[in-house]
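Minutes, project check-in
Item: structure for the 99-residue chain
Input as provided by the requester:
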Amino acid sequence: MKTNAPKPSAAAALALALALALAGTGSAQAQACLDKRQIQEAVASGEILSLDAVLAASGVDPNAEILNVQVCDQGGRLVYVIGVLAPDGQAQNLTLNAQ
């Protein structure tokens, strides 16, 4: 007799897809990422742009839902690594220059 296994919810599938995608964005060399306090200090000192400024300059839909944000050193430059869920339900990872 065949049993029907429960299907994962769309949100769970999306979360898994984003986690896998983010895991695949690293290089063979580990990325050094800033913690929340370091990000706030970098924005306050002018070392990096604010997340809002970077999103606006990149043309990201202001209605998109931000799922996660990291600031990491990528080859000597600081970048935002952002998980975004567009209003149409499409998820993507963006890597945007933070400086």
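Outcome recorded: The beta strands are 32-33, 65-74, 77-85, 91-97.
No further action items on this chain.
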